Amino acid sequence: MTLLGHHDFRLLWATQTLGQFGAHFSRVGLPLVAILALDATAFEAGLLATFQTVAFLVVGLPAGAWVDRRRKRPVMIVANLGRGLLLAWVPVAAYLGVLSLTQLYVVALGVSVGTLLFETAYVSYLPLLLERGQLVEGNAKLESTRSVAQVGGPTLGGYLVQWLGAPLAVLTVAGGYLASAVVLCGIRMREAVPARGTDRHLVREIRQGLSFVFGHRSLRALAVSGALFNLGVFVTGTVVVVLLAQQLRIAPGTVGLWFAIGGIGGLVGAFVVRRVSARIGPGPAVWFGMAVAGVSGLVVPLADADWRLWLAGAGNALVSTGLVINNVNSMAIRQQLCPQELQGRMNATIRFLIFGAMPIGSFLGGFLGERVGLREALWVGAVLSLVAVLPVYFSPLRTMRGHPGDDDPGTPRDGAPPGRQARPRDPDGVGSR
Fold first, then answer.
1. pLDDT at 410
2. Which of 203, 150, 206 is nearest to 345 (CA)?
3. Ordered structural domains, the chain, with CATH
4. What is the C-alpha separation between 327 and 315, in angstroms, rounded?
5. CB within 8 A of 309, min separation 6: which ones?
């Protein structure tokens, strides 16, 4: 039976889809609110983008240990309710005439915390719902909706900003988050309460997650590579919005369309990822996808208010294609190499590095855009993303052609983690994890 017949996965998939639309709109929509409604500078737009991801850097590690101690579904529900209510505050403040950059920073920070909790919980929840052999298919489906959201989120967001005004357009995103919280309530599978040992200590648990990731050659390579790539891509993403909307005077709807082209590339990646993984293996697919993304990103700094705008858009699409191939295989490898009781801490540690690079990249992009110029900043971002292929290429992942397991060359020889726990079947008769 395919995952389309898996009731609980379908609901998780729907929730993730709504969340991804919200996330991709917010990354373009909130800077457009700041630029168009509040005349934000490049540095102020970069600072806003920094707040949208800073939670992963500041509280990413304790969040993983905290999530490991709790049922994942309630965490996801509360996170989406919080994101929806915070974003609903923006149009209300605009209607009352009190909208300010400070408020946008607060909203972005709060949404960042909600995104951190949701993302950490849902990637740890997926192995509870699915069997080991279903993880590549499940991650591919989730990445396909991420790619659809990359197309629909910025495009719809850009035109909503153009038609309704920037603050009011944010209200639609708030509604999506609130709806996704309702959808999550329909999942039938109930998790057991995580075991609470008498010696549990937050700092010790964080250290366990760090030790597991950094002591594992494959996981360490995935974390370092992802951090370098996100550092570069968020320098680029922060600066390119200002370049298009402010310097080149591109209409908001066209800005959204430009970002949507990248999402089309992501859809291509989601369509071919299983074939690529089957042909060359999950490990080589990781570095291959990263190489495609890094090389293609060198076209983005060429964007201008003519045919080069769409050339850069095509390069951005290939970046998304490579990134999806990389992400699907990276996620499946991570989920299969880690025991369930360490999933939250492992994911939080890797996301601390990968997503923690996002606010640094956003801040660096805004700083460089203001000090040395927008195009120069775009070239810095492109080069940083390109060198991200090196850690995964020079690692055991390069020769990992079968499904990863405890015999993976990167697994530490001592201090091996305990095995996976048996899990109940879901109500539809499909194995759940």
1. 41
2. 206
3. 3-189+202-399 (1.20.1250.20)
4. 18
5. 244, 248, 250, 258, 303
* Nearest residue to 210 (alpha-carbon basis) of 219, 201, 218: 219
pLDDT at 198: 47
Residue scoring higher pLDDT (345 or 101): 101
| DSSP character at residue 399 | G
How many helices (H) and strands (E) the chain has is answered by 18, 0
List 431's β-bridge partners, or say none.
Answer: 425
Other CB atoms within 10 Å distance of the CB of residue 168: 16
- Asked whether residue 423 carries a pLDDT value surpassing 50, the answer given is no
Distance CA 216, CA 409 (A): 9
Query: Which residue, among 227, 371, 384, has the nearest Cα to 301 in the 3D structure?
Result: 384
Is 0.90 topped by the overall pTM?
no
Query: How many Cβ atoms are within 10 Å of 304's Cβ, its own excluded?
Result: 14
Best-predicted range by mean pLDDT among 35-39, 95-99, 129-133, 253-257? Answer: 95-99
CA 182 vs. chain centroid, Å, equals 22
- 394 burial (CB, 10 Å; 0-12 / 13-18 / 19+) is exposed
CB contact at 8 A, 51 and 65: no
- Please identify which residue in the block is written with the tokens 């091996």: 416
Q: CB-based contacts of 105: which residues, under 8 Å, 6+ apart? A: 47, 48, 51
Residue 116 tokens, joined: 């951190």
Paired residues of 425 in beta bridges: 431
In the chain, how long is the greatest CA-to-CA distance? 65
Number of residues assigned to the chain = 433
**What CA–CA distance (Å, rounded) separates 135 from 326?**
14
In angstroms and rounded to an integer, the radius of gyration of the C-alpha atoms of the chain is 21
The dihedral through the CA atoms of 266, 271, 276, 282 has a sign that is positive
Tell me how far apart the terminal alpha carbons of the chain are, to the nearest angstrom: 16
∠ CA 49-125-402 to the nearest 5 degrees? Answer: 95
Task: Please say whether the beta carbons of 12 and 126 come within 8 A.
Answer: yes
Per-residue pLDDT, averaged over 250-258, amounts to 79
Token pair, residue 132, equals 């080991």
Nearest partner of 340 among 421, 416, 408, 410, judged by Cα: 421
- Token pair recorded at residue 217: 């050659």
